[in-house]
Amino acid sequence: MRRFALSNLRDYGMGKKASEEKIIEEIQYLIKVFESHEGKPFNVTKSINYAVSNIISSIIYGSRFDYSDEEFTEMTQSATYWLNWTSFNPTLICPIPNSVNGSEGFKTARHLAQHGKWLTLNPEMRVRFQDKISRPKYCERLRMPVNQ
Questions:
Q1: For residues 12 and 19, what is the distance between their CA atoms, to the nearest angstrom?
Q2: Is residue 66 a contact partner of residue 33, using CB atoms and an 8 Å limit?
Q3: Burial of 39 by CB count in 10 Å (0-12 exposed, 13-18 middle, 19+ buried)?
Q4: Residues of the signal sequence (predicted)?
Q5: Cβ–Cβ contacts within 10 Å for residue 126, how many?
Q6: What is the pLDDT of residues 28-61, one digit of tens each?
Q7: Rounded distance between C-alpha atoms, residue 96 and residue 94, angstroms
Q8: Given phi > 0 = left and psi -120 to 50 = alpha, else beta, which region is 65?
Q9: Are residue 47 and residue 120 in the same domain, yes or no?
Q10: Which residue positions in the chain have pLDDT lower than 50?
Q11: In this structure, what is the dihedral angle of CA atoms 108, 109, 111, 113, given to the nearest 10 degrees?
């Protein structure tokens, strides 16, 4: 699933200069919203949700929505509502049965905990995690001495 998601995101421009430019463009709109409140306190949640939704929209569809577009605000609020519910209770997305046809269909919490413990205690896995974390950003790779 992870590999599928990453390959599709790369197809849509993840890690490329074009997606970085779209993010910077959307940040300009977000700054205007912040400035419109003239330093007064306000809830930034909706504005940030709209910005994130617009970034995804501009990468996938090639266009963005205005923050005052009624259809856009309804879709974003609906998605936020369902994401909050499913993050609170992931079984709403895919119910996990206790057994399938009388046999254990899914690993138990104990097995998952043991697997997590193995991942963190295994020196090779720790090195692989650190390598992933330490990788430079895509735009920084071109400026590295190795590539010059």
A1: 8
A2: no
A3: exposed
A4: none
A5: 12
A6: 999 999 999 898 888 888 899 999 999 888 888 8
A7: 6
A8: beta
A9: no
A10: 102-103, 105-107, 147-148
A11: 170
Query: How far is it, in rounded angstroms, from Cα 114 to Cα 111?
Result: 5
Query: What is the number of alpha carbons within 13 Å of residue 41 lying toward its C-beta?
Result: 0
Reported pTM: 0.51
- Is the distance from CB of 54 to CB of 26 less than 8 angstroms? yes
Same domain, 55 and 120: no
CB atoms within 10 A of CB 30: 18
Average pLDDT, the chain: 74
Domain boundary residue, one of 79, 95, 111 = 95
CA angle in degrees (0–180, nearest 5) for 5-11-14? 75
